[in-house]
Amino acid sequence: MPETLTHIGPRRPRRYAPRTRLGCLTCRRRKKKCPADGPECRTCVRLSLDCEWDNRRHFPTSGPSPASTAAEEDGQPSSELDHDLPLRVSALSAAIPPSPSVLITMADAGDQNMLLSYYIHSFVPNISVVHTSSNFFTSVYVPMAFRCEPVLQAILACSAAHLAKGAPNSEDQARLLELSLRSQVRCHRFLQERISLTGRLQSDHIEAIAIILLLVGLEVQNGANTGKWVCQLDCVRNVIKQSGGNGVFCRRSWEAEALYEHFLYHDVMSLIMSGVAGSETDELEATSPSDIAASSPLPFTEAEVPWARFLPQDRTRSSSASSSSMRRPALSTSIHPLLGLSKDLFFLIQKIPRVKPVQSEGEGCPNPAENELFLNLERQFVDLRFDLAGDACGGIDLAARLDLVVLAETYRLAALILLYRRSCVHEDQIPLLAQRIISFAERISEGNAAEAGLTYPLFLAGAELVDEQSIVVCATKLMKIRERIKVMNIQSAEEVLQEVWRDRLNGGPCRDWENVLRSWKWVINLG
Predict the structure, then answer these.
(1) Mean pLDDT calculated for residue range 60-77
(2) C-alpha dihedral (274, 414, 345, 326), degrees to nearest 10
(3) What is this structure's pTM?
(4) Directed axis angle between helix 149-164 and helix 205-221, to 10°?
(5) 22 and 132 share one domain
(6) By residue range, what is the domain housing residue 226?
(7) pLDDT of 394 strictly over 70
(8) What's a GO biological-process term for it (predicted)?
(9) Same structural domain for residues 418 and 493?
(10) Are 113 and 471 in contact, with CB atoms under 8 Å apart?
(11) Partners of 350 in the β-ladder
């Protein structure tokens, strides 16, 4: 054998890449080249990773002061923009222990794998009204998480917070909540680093919107009753506006369309709370993206939009824009994991704020027929048919399809309640609609996936019930849903309804649920 290789010549010595210990621990652990150019290397800053250094590594004192460094390590932004951002981390940093030695790092692959598996196999099925392989929570957000670390952190934050509610002991619960808090801080850092000194979102629009929507969902599952989630939605709303509107935004990529439908769901929930928050929401065009003409309106100017500081500075393609060239997955055109069969209905609900409320006879209450928009919406709500075509329901059994139809009917009746609350002429019809919602909700058996979507219609119906038997049915249904899916915004809704029912059953003056929320200064998401 050696004689046959003599023509090759002498063997060249193998050369190895020089090894150095000058890089940060994060890059060395990832086996990547580290620029080693400061307290936080450019690679870790670009990927929003924690740049860890060996204790023997020291830097000149000409860098940031120890106070500012400690603030950043605690999750507190050093920029003055913190006073203007709705996505604050100051409240989160107060709950994080200051000593890094006692913190559980999310670099632990075991924790990440466990939480990601829980997100896919338990969390997403719990909050979805239908179980399909095309669920955007997994088909869109999980692939995005593999190319954008902060999206993964948002997923882990939701997963850890939800898993903590079923922890067997206080130690495991505290550990999971700590993991969730640390992931939230990293998400906020990512968002703040992409906001310029003028307050404009400059890059990574798709990823930033995905993170914000996941954080809105985290507020919901934690039972937050402040208006923080409304401010987060305002941020998303104005980014979409400055992208040319929902039609132009949805045509950017299939990911953008999925994100808009996720936003649509929470936008309707904020619409329900618009009277409590003190002002009507500045809604987007309430038209399905498929029905929007190719020509989009001119973008708003900064003076016209109250949330101008969140608008994109440039409209060049973001890092995720190339995803539009990817092959689009077979997303269902009819069934949505949050909207169910009611996607078109939610687009109609977005138009309700345009209807002028008439609450007294002096305002022309006897003639509501003059309000053409009111009559048009009423007719569309009643005439809307929910399509259950076989090709759109592949893999879904008949019982699940019927549950989706029943859920869609409760959404239709709840939409009529929202509309009729704006007209004193239709007040006597609201209790009848509420009773119908309860009867429909009883048809969805306990433990079915469609139950996860009943909070919104049950709340609007429960607040209008007058007989004790129906109140018991509504309260029992909400309690069982909360115990099963472990989403704590349901508990906030229950507390408001209990306040309304207490006065009503005791023969006292009937309190409207909006008045209760105003007196408590609550703004809850019914998603």
Answers:
(1) 40
(2) 70
(3) 0.70
(4) 10
(5) no
(6) 106-322
(7) no
(8) positive regulation of transcription by RNA polymerase II
(9) yes
(10) no
(11) none
